[in-house]
Amino acid sequence: MMTAANLPNEPLSAAQRTLSHTVSFWFIAATLGQWAFIAFILLFYGGHSLKGEFTALNNKPHITGYVAGDTLGNTQWLMHVFIAAVVTFAGVLQLLPQIRKHWPELHRWNGRVFMLSAVIATLTGFYLTWIRGSQLNLPSALSTSLNGVLIVLFIILAWRSARQRDFVTHRRHALRAYLLVNGVWFLRIGIVPAGLVLAALGQKMDYNSPAFLIVSYASWMLPITLLQLYFIAQASKRVVVVRSVSALFAFLALFTLGGAIAAAMFMWWPYL
After folding, report:
1. In terms of pLDDT, which residue wins out, 94 or 10?
2. Whole-structure pTM value
3. Nearest CA to 137 among 85, 71, 213?
4. CB 251 within 8 A of CB 29
5. Are 158 and 115 in contact (CB under 8 A)?
6. Within a 10 A sphere around the Cβ of 213, how many other Cβ atoms?
7. Distance from C-alpha of 27 to C-alpha of 33, rounded to nearest angstrom
8. Comparing C-alpha atoms, which of 158, 69, 168 is closest to residue 116?
9. Distance CA 123, CA 110 (A)
């Protein structure tokens, strides 16, 4: 029976349910886009590699792609690409509540795969950026490297809090690591919409332009900032705060889905 004592809690509980639904909507949109990215890696890079057609990998433009005679550089590059598929897939599995609830052992082992893959992807990324010289410019190289440093930091914090059985803190650090690992993916789904907006204004996306650098830094700074807003909304007792964050995530879900579709159409599928 509804009583005066519990009336004030009803709008807050409804708002929290809406928040949960909109964040789930965003996660589904992101997952679809990430799986499209994984499919492209397997079909394009995996297909050509299995056939030994390594020079064909340069059919898709890269900062530094396959270079004949550069065995170490090519190995690091391909390792980075394929590990990206592994860490992306493992990250999605790690966030599924059904796996955590019904298959906790799988969750633990998949978490180890995610953490190890994330560290390997970061270290190979550092090699490619600072030793092989695969960088568009210094500001964007610094952006990806800062992203990489934070990935390693939050992986360590997530591992340590799990060892201490502080699962609330572990979850928060793991979510941060998941978003940071996907910084390159966020960059891709951000570049295409930004490029389309600039094109409508009669301008062209230039990798040395302020617009590209803003998207580059926002690709990892914005997701972890939005995650913090989500944590605040989860703990908030104010309906207006919870509903505002819900509306924001509903918009982000649509933007993410649109950006993922645009990235697939313009950056991935044309090369298959």
Report:
1. 94
2. 0.90
3. 213
4. no
5. yes
6. 17
7. 10
8. 158
9. 20
Which tokens is 124 given? Answer: 């190979």
Which tens digit of pLDDT belongs to each residue from 195-209? Answer: 888 888 888 878 888
Fill in the amino acid letter for 243. R
The dihedrals phi and psi of 240, each to the nearest 5 degrees, come to: -60, -35
Contacts of 146 (CB under 8 A, 6+ apart): 220
3-state secondary structure the chain: CCCCCCCCHHHHHHHHHHHHHHHHHHHHHHHHHHHHHHHHHHHHHHHHHHCCCHHHHHHCCCCCCCCCCCHHHHHHHHHHHHHHHHHHHHHHHHHCHHHHHHCHHHHHHHHHHHHHHHHHHHHHHHHHHHHCCCCCCHHHHHHHHHHHHHHHHHHHHHHHHHHCCCHHHHHHHHHHHHHHHCHHHHHHHHHHHHHHHHHHCCCCCCCCCHHHHHHHHHHHHHHHHHHHHHHHHHHCCCHHHHHHHHHHHHHHHHHHHHHHHHHHHHHHHHHC
